Protein: VOC family protein
Organism: Demequina litoralis
Amino acid sequence: MTMPQGHVAHLGYAMLDTPDLDATVWFFENILGMTETRRVDGMSFLRAYDDYEECSIIACQAPTSGIRRTALRASSERALEERAVAVQDAGRPGRWEDGIAGRGRTFVTTDPDGHQLALYYDTVWYEAPEDLAAGLKNQAQAKPNRGIGVRRFDHINFLAARPEDNAAFHIDVLGARPTEQIRMDDGRIAAKWLSFGQKSYDVVYTEDWTGGSGRLHHLAFATDTREEILRAADLCLDQGVHIETGPHKHAIQQTFFLYVFEPGGNRIEMCNPLTRLVLAPDWPLVTWTEPERKRGQAWGLGTIETFHTHGTPPMEGQDTQAYRPTGMLGKRPSGDARR
Ligand SMILES: [Fe+2]
């Protein structure tokens, strides 16, 4: 058995639950500028313009919001097989099933907090139809002239009762490396950022104060420029999409950000981390202290209270439907963008 580093290549796709699929798809198409490739059995397959696979988000009609599955692409068939064995050796559950959305056979497990994780290697590369084809052969699809046109699904931030235990699973079993963390005064790790490649993070675990399990803090989508995030803020303002915080710059990881709630209640980040890479093989884990964390974001913006209280699915008493955008009430999602 080889060491796990390098065995996971990148985030593959997330299955996101929503109680209002039409409204959620409207958001992904008209705010983020993603493209729906098809809709089958209550699932919408959505792609960022630079996705080389069919989709990176599968929005699923469900009774409530939250994260159903997070899939990771292994770096080879052998890496997939070895990680599946390692997951089971670590005492986690596991099963093989047929892949979806062009992916081959898939190994499904959970992290210690109960989030469903899936590993696959075989995949089908996306071929754009003629009307969506890019001008250059090294780009999967033309950038849509709609919404802000996110480039890719960038990272996922999970809520978890014990971020350290879940991070250890990713490090020891899946081969992630930790790049930054928050250590509270009492010694507990309140959040940890993990990377599978040279992006400074792909997966984050943040402490869930509610006592829930398997919940989502946010999904993040990378833009080409910071200006597109400013454009997104105006677009959300015009369309009545709830802006939670930003635009601003994080101190941790230095990501330029905007956080909004999509109509299904899930928190979505638009982020611009594209220029920051961790190239050093011996990168030292950066630890932020509790007093440093309390200083807020990089340019002084305080951390908004809902950042610590809102997650999906909602806990009892949280009303995520209060965040339904006003701009789309009474409108059908724009059908002209569907392919
Ligand atoms: Fe984020």
